[in-house]
Amino acid sequence: MKALFLTLALLVALVSSAAAQMNDWRAERAVSSAPPAETVDALTRQMANKLHLNEGQYVQLRAVNQTKLTAIEEIEWQYTDIIKRNAKLNELEGQYEAECSRILTPNQLSLYHDEFLRDTKPSKTASKENGVG
After folding, report:
1. Which residues in 57-90 are b (16+ Cβ under 10 Å) and which e?
2. pLDDT tens digits, one per residue of 102-119
3. Of the residues 28, 65, 111, 124, which has the fewest C-beta atoms closer than 10 A?
4. First CA to last CA across the chain, in angstroms?
């Protein structure tokens, strides 16, 4: 009888401990599930200034930027393996560009590629000639 009672008590302790850890995990995820509005606004404002967006484009692009930044945070939190993380981030970037091509005019899209994607791609001008580099 004692063994049954002790086993039952141990089982209840383990279950309550696991439940408390899940509540902590949920609370932690709830706090960091969305990027700050200032970040989304700053990114969208920067794009609006460079790409000369109209009001409708601004509203649509702000929603897409909100989604993108939220997804980036989730991918970075979810994937610890760098290869998988980069693959997911590349997939997300492709989806983002598809959404941008739906919202932006061809001229704005060309300007977007020139202004915003220029820094993300490594330059091929760096060489190791003369032992420098």
Report:
1. bbebbbebbbbbbebbeebeeeeeeeeeeeebee
2. 999 999 999 988 888 765
3. 124
4. 75
Determine, yes or no, domain membership for 106.
yes
Q: Which domain covers residue 57, as residue numbers?
A: 32-118
For Cα atoms 116, 118, 121, give the angle at the middle one, nearest 5 degrees.
120
pTM: 0.63
Q: What is the DSSP string of the chain?
A: -HHHHHHHHHHHHHHHHHHHHHHHHHHHHHHTSS--HHHHHHHHHHHHHHHT--HHHHHHHHHHHHHHHHHHHHHHHH--SHHHHHHHHHHHHHHHHHHHHHHS-HHHHHHHHHHTSTTTSPPS----GGG--
Reported as a single tens digit per residue, the pLDDT across 13-47 is: 666 666 666 655 555 554 456 778 899 999 999 99
Tokens 């004692």 sit on residue: 2
**Domain total of the chain:** 1
Asked whether residue 128 is domain-assigned, the answer is no
Q: Please report whether residue 16 resides in a domain.
A: no
